[in-house]
């Protein structure tokens, strides 16, 4: 490939196609406890790319997005190059993860004061926007709404918050009717050359969102992850200290995990994964 490499995520790469377009390539790598494992999950990158495409096609009436074309390999997308906003845009419909930690410590998350007595993994009365910083290393940190507004400007902040909540409401309602809870999700936005707000990165994938099986939802503790639970359970049996390097995965864990990704894809899109492999454009219609 002749394209210039621009950036690496844990499991994705970005290349420059020209001044206006980027190529986003999703690999089959998987991370757990923030460590990329040496074993890949076949087709994971295709599942995530297909899901993003599905959601981008269905949310254009809420906000324009960066997707220009989905390539025949099912894992590469051509995207409009944007000026990215310096915040991660997180929406939470359930209280878990760093939101749960912040709530326990202070009774609030990013300045949203929540009622007393919430249990871990409880549904919130309404989704909340909890922006975070883009940490260069380590974990993103939830920041106050004022701090986020300072970083992007008040008018931009208000628009991003409104759009992010609308996107979450749209997708989480769809997912719940298909037996999957989207507990929370992270968006990245950018501005195009005319200053228009555009949704970028990936949308409602299991790497950018917490997917929980709805029929197993039980507040009071952390929930099993729809996609990564086999991997986490296996890693817990090893007594691994969760630092680099991670363990190789046995075949049954790989096969079971691949099946969970494919199941999430098929439940959410209503499209058979085989059809997607034959014709990736199927998710856009
Ligand atoms: C962009 N990232 C983060 C994501 C990585 C890194 N449309 C865009 N325009 C300009 N920049 C970006 C995007 C997008 N999306 C996003 N870094 C730059 C990122 C995935 C893999 F290596």
- Mean of the pLDDT scores? 97
| Low-confidence region ranges | none
CA-CA gap between termini: 29 Å
Total DSSP E strands: 16
> Roughly how much helix do the residues carry, as a percent range?
25-40%
Give the helix tally: 7
Order of helices and strands: EEEEEHEEEEHEEEEHHEEEHHH
Portion of residues in beta strands equals 25-35%
Quick one: biggest sheet?
Answer: 7 strands, antiparallel
Gyration radius from CA atoms, angstroms: 18 Å
Q: Name the ligand types.
A: ligand PZK
Q: What spatial form do the alpha-carbon principal axes imply? A: globular
Look at the helices and sheets and give the structural class. alpha+beta
Features:
5-stranded antiparallel β-sheet, binds ligand PZK, 7-stranded antiparallel β-sheet, 285 residues, alpha+beta
Description of the molecule:
By secondary structure, the protein is of the alpha+beta class. The chain has 7 helices and 16 strands. The strands form 4 sheets. Strands 8, 9, 12, 13, 14, 15 and 16 form a 7-stranded antiparallel sheet that branches. Strands 1-2-3-7-6 form a 5-stranded antiparallel sheet. Helix 3 (145-152) packs across helix 4. The structure holds ligand PZK. Ligand PZK binds next to strand 1, strand 2, strand 3 and strand 7.
